[in-house]
Amino acid sequence: MSERARFVVVANRLPVDRIVAEDGTVDWRTSPGGLVTALEPVMRKQGGAWIGWHGAPDEEVERFTHDGYSVVPIPLTSSEFEEYYEGFSNATLWPLYHDTVAFPEFHREWWDAYVVVNRRFAEAAAEVADEGATVWVQDYQLQLVPQMLRELRPDLRIGFFLHIPFPPVELFLQLPWRRKILEGLLGADLVGFQVAGAAANFLRLVRTRTDHKIERDHVRVGDRLCHAKAYPISIDTEGFAALAESPEVIAEAQALLDDLGHPKTVLLGVDRLDYTKGLRQRVRAIGELFEEGRLDPAEVVFLQVATPSRERVEEYKRLRDDIDLLVGRINSELGGVGRPPIVYRHAGFPRATMAAMYRIADVAVVTPLRDGMNLVAKEYVACHPGTDGALVLSEFAGAAKELKQAYLVNPYDLNDMKDVVLRAIEDPVEERRRRMRALKRQVKTHTIDAWADNFLGDLEKLSRR
Ligand code: ADP
Ligand code: G6P
């Protein structure tokens, strides 16, 4: 391995995915999801190396430079892709950590693959990191890496950040490998969570299920300390706002409104197609508002875009079919011959198009059943011009802890969701402005730069030996 780095990010995903077309041509595309959206500006600023998987199984790719930092691709075989990524990461940990909104599956072969792949990432980090460097490990796919890396390289400063919720004790205890995961995380000097409740869940588990001593927010692990604290993640607020104000995006927003036939009100949903995002409930609630005549399809459009995600995992296949059916039924029963009331696209879009959608949305409807943070909510607040937009936000998104002036809903309560969506549309403009002003203040003062500075500043202080 060439050149060592002083700062290393280790994440399952790289910022870009390698896409091989049918004719064999290779392309790189921005990877899906909030982790990449958040970390990519951090890496551009910090420089260093990003270690991760490039999204194509059974392919080995050489290290390369991207946006001024080094990208170190880690290969996965097809069977590791199935067992470590689709299996243990996304059919065991993902549902378990999201309040079991889908049933987690436990398979010993999946766990074995998780251990093997975590070791591969740890070994790569050990090779890439310079003497005394800072290594920042990311998310649920790599919870064993901190301990494995510490054993290989005790000289490193190791941080870990969990982008998704950390479950309540009663749920975590279902995991047959619970103790090993806790010990894996305790290899870090600092473990960051999205919200304080998640850090408290972690510390409670360590207290009751391991022999380590705890004082306030830290755990004594042999002769060192592991701290656990909340660091709510954010976005490049200025970057998003500037993009939304660019002439290209303003023109694209206009073209989008032309396509939609200039409705009086645009409701917007933006998600990865994931069962944690509450899409079934959201589509049903808004569908009922149309059916009951409380929303007029001639005046209101519900634009929902959903990026394809984890498409071979059973629960995701079921979700895709359910949403196709539900949207089709509502549109065929309600629509006239023109534009349907629900415009649904199962696709990923360039960031400029997302910004154009945020610009034209009168109400963003962000209603996950459980979400670590939810960056879409923050992107909408950053991009929507002026202060007359409205954000409907689930109480169960980490973002609700900060965006308190949003129209908060319980996404399991369909009647509540219907009432709140209507209120967000119909409230006097002064009320909407008051809320939006407060939301804008929040995202302007709590940016991704501040998040990274807080975490890395604490990591440096706390791991000083
Ligand atoms: P998650 O990380 O679970 O996917 P977040 O809301 O935190 O959820 O982050 C999602 C990210 O993916 C955001 O940056 C959002 O802009 C982006 N995104 C979501 N849906 C789409 C889409 N259809 N096309 C392009 N980007 C999308
Ligand atoms: C969430 C997770 C990330 C993940 C992203 C996209 O944001 O926290 O770790 O990268 O979803 O999911 P994928 O499985 O496509 O990487």
From TrEMBL:
Gene Ontology BP annotations: trehalose biosynthetic process
Single GO molecular function: alpha,alpha-trehalose-phosphate synthase (UDP-forming) activity
Short name of any one Pfam family annotated for the protein: Glyco_transf_20
Similarity remark: Belongs to the glycosyltransferase 20 family.
PANTHER family in the record: BCDNA.GH08860 (PTHR10788:SF106), TREHALOSE-6-PHOSPHATE SYNTHASE (PTHR10788)
Record's protein name: Trehalose-6-phosphate synthase
Organism whose genome encodes this protein: Tessaracoccus flavescens
